[in-house]
Amino acid sequence: MQNFISVDDVSNINALVQQALAYKAAPFVDKALGLNKRIGLLFLNPSLRTRISTQVAAQNLGMEAIVFNVDKEGWALEFEEGAIMNGTTVEHIKDAAPILGNYFDILCVRTFPSLQNRQEDYSEKVISAFKKYAGVPVISLESATLHPLQSLTDLVTIKETFKGQHKPKIVLTWAPHIKPLPQCVSNSFAQWINAWGEADFVITHPEGYELSEQYTNGITIVHNQDEALKDADFVYVKNWSSYLDYGKILSQDPSWMLTQQKLQLTNNARVMHCLPVRRNVELSDEILDSANSLVTQEAGNRVWAAQAVISELVKRI
Ligand code: CP
């Protein structure tokens, strides 16, 4: 692995999942691996889980972790090639990224999409520019279109939880929300579960909420949520704004919120969500506070997923 931007950077998904679970069982076994190595965590957007779990993961490997909130404390960065910088941006990524590459052995970046311009967001100009100019391995802490550390975590959580003998049925369901959210988590989850290939995978959403076909090609998509939920072993709940009518909210239909009544249709499914979650909008209290909910375990597993990824990259430095 040279970078960690998407599932395409991973040669063996199951091996990476096993490494994460091994770190969960023995967090400090590789404490010497990152000695005298420094990791930079750059945030252009807010975070709770990603920020802290990645710091903890790096420290478990003996690395020094430095967090920089670029959006609040840094110069406004320019990403356009050939830009005439007579506006609000102060420093070009061409100048900033190589310097960060000097300071750090690994660079991690979180950035969100604008949800205004689909072509620009899906070009991944921010994370691509860091990758191009930093000169050190880059880890995505969520980009404009993907959230690979979250998806690896989700797979770790599914693998450690599922005890059945059959192929697990996993359902990704759209949920209502009051704000337009990125498609990153859902794109990424679809990409990882598809690449893993060991599940019966179904996506359900209202019409108009189709995700980009580059992530859903070959996946069963149904618009009837009840039908999709039938016999599910895992239900992954997530809101996303429209990809087709880019960044728009097309529905806030509360009947799409998962309830205990809907869960009766499933195989006593475990319920997942990346968090943060809007209680009683995206997911009901009765689900989140029930034994079916995996959300706390899932968020806890962010550490082990990050630790597995960082350790892979540190070994190559
Ligand atoms: N799931 C997730 O990425 O959480 P944060 O936004 O808090 O990092």
Brief summary of the model shown:
This protein is α/β, with parallel strands linked by helices and 317 residues long.
Question: Going by CATH, what is the homologous superfamily of the largest domain?
Answer: Aspartate/ornithine carbamoyltransferase
CATH architecture descriptor name of the largest domain: 3-Layer(aba) Sandwich
Taken in chain order, the helices and strands follow as HEHEHEEHEHHEHEHEHEHEHEHHH
CATH topology of the largest domain: Rossmann fold
User: Helix segment count?
Assistant: 14
- List the ligand species: phosphoric acid mono(formamide)ester
Any overview of this molecule?
The protein is α/β, with parallel strands linked by helices and 317 residues long. The chain has two domains: 7-146 and 300-314, Rossmann fold (3-Layer(aba) Sandwich); 150-297, Rossmann fold. It contains 14 helices and eleven strands. The protein has helices spanning 13-25, 49-60, 70-73, 93-103, 118-122, 125-134, 148-161, 184-196, 213-216, 225-229, 260-263, 285-288, 295-300, 302-314; strands at 38-43, 64-69, 77-78, 91-92, 106-110, 138-140, 169-174, 200-204, 220-222, 234-238, 270-272. A five-stranded parallel beta sheet has the order 9-8-7-10-11. Strands 2-1-5-6 form a four-stranded parallel beta sheet, sandwiched between helices. It has a two-stranded parallel ribbon with strand order 3-4. Helix 8 links the parallel strand 7 and strand 8 (200-204). The mean pLDDT is 97. The structure holds phosphoric acid mono(formamide)ester. Phosphoric acid mono(formamide)ester binds next to helix 2.
